[in-house]
Write a structure and sequence with these properties.
By secondary structure, the chain is of the alpha/beta class. Helices cover 31% and strands 13% of the residues. The two termini are 28 Å apart.
Length: 247
């Protein structure tokens, strides 16, 4: 069951900015690949009913996703189902940062680019190319989707969050909307047939989290790192609350 008004106003009344005190104008945004995500909304139009039926999908908090302007969407990650379900649940198109392993061959790479994915190597930490892509998406006023765990947690507890979402938020002044997904973990049992069982999935969007920026003191590197860590912890805490996952 879909809950919330997909056309409603954002829960946050503060302006969503594409730049700020430490804004993207000081960054080096990279190019957004041509035709990135061209297939996403077409696919959504023809598959959303199937996903809603198969997953018994319930979506809460859609009103927390701003109707326009740049947004960072940060979600937990249990399985490959998470990506299409976020697309189905979100009222706006989403450009994703995805693990580079999904782009290992030309056929898969073309498909994931068409669905809005951009390759990222989480082992490289703050990948300059990935963050430049993220800033470019935000400067275009679009939605950037991230899975800050860096990989799937399957049936395990939620993993620690990487700092990319917080870095981008502080760099651009853009809010982060936490997203919690429940029910997409690997089904119990053995064999491929377990994946054919219908399940109960809930996608919940939380209230936008705005970065706290301010003048940089003399020890700006230390302060910046502390701000990134504090924001990362806030986002992870919000996602954990939405999933009921212990921190």
């Amino acid at each position: 069951m879909i809950r919330g008004d997909a056309r409603g106003e954002s829960a946050s009344r503060r302006p969503i900015r594409a730049g700020g005190a430490s804004g993207a104008s000081r960054g080096t945004p990279g190019p957004v690949p041509a035709r990135l995500g061209w297939l996403q909304q077409i696919g959504k139009r023809f598959t959303w009913r199937a996903f809603r039926w198969f997953c018994r999908l319930r979506v809460d908090g859609v009103e927390h996703v701003p109707r326009s302007g740049p947004v960072i969407l940060a979600s937990n990650h249990r399985s490959m189902l998470d990506v299409p379900l976020v697309v189905v649940a979100c009222p706006r198109p989403v450009s994703f940062m995805a693990h580079q392993g999904l782009f290992a061959d030309p056929v898969r790479a073309s498909f994931f680019y068409a669905m809005g994915g951009y390759p990222v190597d989480p082992e490289r930490g703050r990948d300059a190319g990935a963050l430049g892509f993220g800033l470019a998406v935000l400067r275009r006023g679009e939605v950037l989707g991230l899975f800050p765990e860096g990989t799937r947690s399957y049936r395990e507890l939620m993993k620690p969050f990487l700092a990319g979402a917080a870095w981008l938020s502080l760099r651009s002044g853009v809010c982060i909307v936490p997203c919690g997904i429940v029910g997409t973990e690997t089904p119990a049992g053995r064999g491929w047939s377990r994946w054919l069982r219908r399940r109960w999935v809930r996608v919940a969007f939380g209230e936008p989290i705005l970065p706290v920026t301010g003048p940089e003191p003399a020890d700006e590197v230390v302060v910046r790192r502390a701000r990134i860590q504090e924001l990362t912890d806030r986002v992870r805490g919000s996602v954990a609350a939405l999933t009921g996952d212990p921190r």
